[in-house]
Amino acid sequence: MKILVSIKRVIDFNVKVRVKADGTGVETANVKMSMNPFDEIAVEEAVRLKEAGVATEIVVVSCGAQACQETLRTALAIGADRAILVETAAELQPLAVAKLLKAVCQKESPKLVIMGKQAIDDDSNQTGQMLAALLGWPQATFASKLKVEGEKAQVTREVDGGLETVSIKIPAVVTTDLRLNEPRYVTLPNIMKAKKKTLEVLKPEGLGVDVSPRLSTLKVVEPGKRKAGTKVADVKALVDKLRNEAKVI
């Protein structure tokens, strides 16, 4: 069974995000970039399925600038077999990415697509659902446990009331949550091996996909600074402030 994993290059989660002076977006120049953490979990899960004998090949896909090749090499070092970069300088929104992934799926014919539930830069949580709709495949989102047997996948997901387990037929799309697994550290020998693995570069035009943005960002601003807290002398003063000064949200 072939598994396709979608990954995204984002600002590293340890970096403090800064807004550009002109308010057109966030600053990415000279900023450390890395693989989206949810996507890293998706790659790890695909590798574990291959190690368990469920999967035969893992293909990782990224859409974006040429610099995404570095992120793809990281996924190859984790254990993926091949990589595909859909290279474009355009601003990619969730629907455009879903259309690109659909075209790649039609080209590669995977039985299972695993991807992070959302990217930590825009937090859209849309691409997986849109891809499943475009392909007409079943979907299971926010997976905290994944088990594949034959032509079915069993996915456990966290809901407000506890845990929910769903069974879906494959081919299907699964999006990963944080509790699914703990990604492994990438070793130096595997990094060296990743340099020799195949990385194919495609263009949106070659896939017949229009990636023109449908939404425009008017302005990006930093959140307002929180006011400093105050200390109260006793419980009576606290109750008084809660009753007379605290705002009901």
Task: Explain what you see.
The protein has 249 residues and is of the alpha/beta class. It is 27% helix and 27% strand. The chain has helices at 37-51, 68-78, 94-108, 127-135, 188-194, 235-244; strands at residues 2-6, 9-11, 33-35, 57-64, 82-87, 112-116, 139-149, 152-159, 162-169, 172-176, 199-202. The strands form two sheets. Strands 9-8-7-10-6-1-4-5-11 form a nine-stranded mixed beta sheet, with helices on both faces. It has a two-stranded antiparallel sheet with strand order 2-3. β4 (57-64), α2 and β5 (82-87) form a beta-alpha-beta unit. α2 packs across α5 and α3 (94-108) crosses α4. The longest helix has 15 residues, at 37-51. The protein is globular, with a radius of gyration of 21 Å.
Q: Features of this protein?
A:
about 250 residues; alpha/beta; nine-stranded mixed beta sheet; two-stranded antiparallel ribbon; 6 helices; about 25% helix; globular
Would you spell out the secondary-structure blueprint of this structure?
Elements: E1 2-6, E2 9-11, E3 33-35, H1 37-51, E4 57-64, H2 68-78, E5 82-87, H3 94-108, E6 112-116, H4 127-135, E7 139-149, E8 152-159, E9 162-169, E10 172-176, H5 188-194, E11 199-202, H6 235-244
Helix pairs in contact: 2-5, 3-4
Count of extended strands = 11
Radius of gyration: 21 Å
Share of helix, binned: 25-40%
The gross shape turns out to be globular
Main sheet: which strands, in order across? 9-8-7-10-6-1-4-5-11
> How many angstroms does the end-to-end distance come to?
50 Å
The structural class is alpha/beta
Provide the residue-averaged pLDDT.
91
Number of helices: 6
- Flag low-confidence runs: none
Topology as H/E string? Answer: EEEHEHEHEHEEEEHEH
**Major β-sheet, in short?**
9 strands, mixed
Strand content: 25-35%
